[in-house]
Design goal:
The chain is an all-alpha fold. The chain has helices spanning 5-19, 26-38, 40-55, 63-69, 88-91, 97-100.
Length: 102
């Protein structure tokens, strides 16, 4: 999916406000989510922004900092995969289409 420079800048501005816990309208959130569904880059930006909003910037030398910088879930213990009780397919069910197709 090709993005114009203007669209990319708009998405980055919205995502920056999300990371800073600033006001984001429903239409803006839908706009970003729509693009994140088809772009792994935008999906990662959004995951990082949500992590920054929820937990603040983590120490980059820690495992939490690594998890946050990669845009992964895992700062909450309920997001950790438990091979004894979790099915790997169910664990990835909330992922965007491009991850499930991999």
């Amino acid at each position: 999916m090709f993005l114009s420079n203007q669209t990319r800048l708009k998405i980055q501005e919205i995502i920056k406000r999300i990371s800073l816990d600033k006001e984001v309208s429903l239409n803006e959130r839908i706009f970003v989510e729509k693009h994140a569904k088809y772009s792994s880059t935008i999906w990662t930006w959004l995951k990082k922004a949500n992590s920054l909003r929820r937990y603040g910037k983590q120490d980059q030398e820690s495992i939490n900092g690594l998890i946050q910088s990669l845009g992964l879930d895992g700062l909450d213990s309920e997001n950790h995969f438990d091979p004894e009780n979790d099915d790997i397919a169910d664990w990835f069910s909330g992922s965007p289409d491009w991850v499930r197709r991999s």
